[in-house]
Design goal:
Layout lengths: L2 H17 L15 E3 L6 H13 L13 E5 L3 E9 L5 E15 L10 E10 L5 H29 L10
Parallel strand pairs: 1-2
Antiparallel strand pairs: 2-4, 3-4, 4-5
Length: 170
Amino acid sequence: MPAALRSIVLLAVGTLVAACGFQLRGSYSFPFESLYLSMPENSVIGAQLRRSIRASNPNLLVPKASEAQVLFVPGSEARDRVILTVSGTGRVSELRLRYLFPYRLTDNKGRDVVPPGSVELVRDLTYDDSQVLAKQQEESLLWRDMELDLVQQLMRRLAAAKPVFVDAGT
């Protein structure tokens, strides 16, 4: 393929990709200057969220809540395992995994800067008593996948937040 034709094809592909709104994941712009994560350092979600935020904006996270413009405060997360269907012999054949993660974005005085939100993730899986170990491993992998999905959804929500800050005089 001649160089001129190759250049035209690459330009056309680049134009099509740009026109469809394609954007690489991982680069986020946040609507606040500093953020404190009110989550334990050893928390799986907290560690992954910190890593993702630092990858997008290394200077956004601050070590103390008093230094932050916005505080991320998680609520009580809930993980449920619900039986969906049972076979004719009374054996479980389908399960639903549900992960609910509520959170708030507040200022230093505890006032919400955006309405409280939550992320709910659901995964269904088939179950077979004859493959208990394999199904336990599959369930474990699904929980891990849900944690990664949760962090990505939180990143998108943090980037899309439209905080309303109250003046100190009011």
